[in-house]
Amino acid sequence: MRWMVIVAVCLGLCPASAFAWGRQGHAAVATLAQKNLSPEALAQVQVLLADDLDRNEKPSHRKTLASVASWADEIRDIAQPDTYKGWHTRANPVCSDRLGACKDGYCVDRLIIKYAAILRDRSQPARARNEALKWVVHLVGDLHQPLHSGVNIDRGNIPAGIIGGEVKPGTTFHSLWDIDVAVLALKGGPLQGRLADAKPLPADAPTQWMKEARDVARSSAYDTLPGFSCNTHLKTPLMVDDAYMQQAAATARKQMENAGLRLAHLLNDSLQ
Fold first, then answer.
1. Which are the contacts of 100, defined by CB distance < 8 A and separation ≥ 6?
2. Model pTM?
3. The pLDDT value given to residue 220
4. What's the CA gap between 183 and 177, in Å, rounded?
5. How many angstroms separate the Cα of 208 from the Cα of each of 63, 113, 116, 118, 269?
6. Successive 10-residue mean pLDDT values, the chain, 272 residues
7. The domain spanning residue 22 has which CATH number?
8. CA proximity to 96, closest of 225, 231, 235, 248
9. In what order do the strands lie in the sheet with 238-241?
10. Are 262 and 140 within 8 A, CB to CB?
11. Closest CA to 144 of 13, 229, 256
12. What is the largest CA-CA distance in the chain?
């Protein structure tokens, strides 16, 4: 059996990645969403992206949801440190029904709600609605990455020393789900799904999705780890085998498909 070894050397010291699913995963979520847009919503998306700007505020020539799906990460790369701290996640404890802190509303579910409201408001400036669209596309993807919505006390900050026999310095348990699990999940080909429910979403739908993702973090990311118990740091070295990666990839693929369909539902509601 091929083993994947995660070696903890600096618990709590390394910041958790916030690049859920990576560029490929975000694009896959957005592609599925665009396939499920109503004609009215698709027309609005085309209008909102007609004069899109890149992170340097130059014409991007991007015309699809997939092409702008990682803009929120791109602008963070050139911003002052901590400018977008907390925007892409919410540290909800996996072993509690209590929600994590959301300082001044700057956390993943509250920001989706905020930017969806801007999208709905046709009196808002075109640039504000363009950027709101890009935030919603990205953050709905982020929210469905389980470790962006649910964490144990280690907050995913367990450095991964060796993965599948390959040394990968800087990889953490969180980024294992962000990248390695996501890549494995997408080997099954394009995401699939058809939006059937056209009923208006409740205002707090993103928060409900986040709670579901928190529960998935508990059941599929943490409970399946050897020796896991609530509110204790994971023992090291942590051994993650192929069986773990395969079930994690299946979970991630389902989460991505949920994200794509829910994103389409939210945009259809917001861009009527």
1. 90, 91, 92, 93, 107, 151
2. 0.90
3. 96
4. 9
5. 30, 12, 15, 20, 17
6. 37 45 95 97 98 97 98 95 94 95 97 98 97 98 97 68 52 83 94 91 97 97 88 72 89 98 98 92
7. 1.10.575.10
8. 231
9. 166-172, 159-163, 3-6, 238-241
10. yes
11. 256
12. 59
Question: CA-CA distance, 26 to 95, in Å (whole number)?
Answer: 28
Where is 133: in which H helix or E strand?
A: helix 126-144
Residues of the domain holding 199: 3-270
The structural domain count of the chain equals: 1
C-alpha to C-alpha distance for 48 and 241, rounded to whole angstroms: 45
Q: Where are the beta strands (DSSP E) in 3-110?
A: 3-6
To the nearest 10°, report the CA torsion of 41, 44, 45, 47: 160
**The predicted structure's pLDDT at residue 157:** 58
| Alpha carbons 135 and 117: distance in angstroms, whole number | 12
Cβ pair 152, 230 in contact under 8 A: yes
